[in-house]
Amino acid sequence: MFELKHITLSSSGDKKIAGIFSATENIKGWVLLLHMMPATKESWDDLSKLLNAEEITTLAIDLAGHGKSSGGPEDYLSFSDNEHQDSINDVKKALEFLRSEGAEFEKTAIIGASIGANLALKYTSECQNLKTLVLLSAGLNYHGIKTEPFIEKLKSGSSILFVSSRDDERKNSDNAEETQKLFDLVPADVEKEIIVYEHAGHGTDMLKTDEMPSLPESIVNFLKNHF
């Protein structure tokens, strides 16, 4: 059993951040879900239900400029790099909310897609107690959020799952290659796993692929092993 609530959080600059909070009756862990552009928090609905079924409480938010958050649904289209980078404050406020609901950071993970993955990595690298990450289509540099320095700052005992697809190619960008580069930079005392699909697309689109292994099941199992 779980209880679903639509919530609103206050972020920097009086921004309002919309979220879907799904609290399970018995809690084995907590997960914050950060979407890609131009998606919204609803892109995580199916995965959230799977996690809830495993007694993992979830919070999915609309980053500023998206969905029902301040500036949504389309202000992100005109965001400067600094405005995109400021979304780290949305992440901070979401985790503060989870803490207020009883979350233990040692049993809390962030799952991010695309720019959401970069934000997840940045925050985790700077937080003493967060140690579990799932990154879908993380990039080397999304709007000035450069990930290589953050990878090198991951704490001993952390665990990270990278996911990419070989068909995720854009101008001057090959996400499978970028993901492999980040994977290779992970410190030796950090547990790491990688899944590379052939034709699964980008970010949360990969959750829908028929390729094996099943990505939703792989994520659930990864988290269960680290909570």
TrEMBL record:
InterPro entries: AB_hydrolase_fold, Hydrolase_4
Segments traversing the membrane: none
Pfam families tied to this protein: Hydrolase_4
UniProt-listed Gene3D superfamilies: alpha/beta hydrolase
Coiled coil: none
Residue ranges occupied by any Serine aminopeptidase S33 domain in the UniProt entry: 26-175
SUPFAM superfamilies attached to this UniProt entry: alpha/beta-Hydrolases
Name of this protein: Serine aminopeptidase S33 domain-containing protein
Organism: Candidatus Liptonbacteria bacterium RIFOXYB1_FULL_36_10
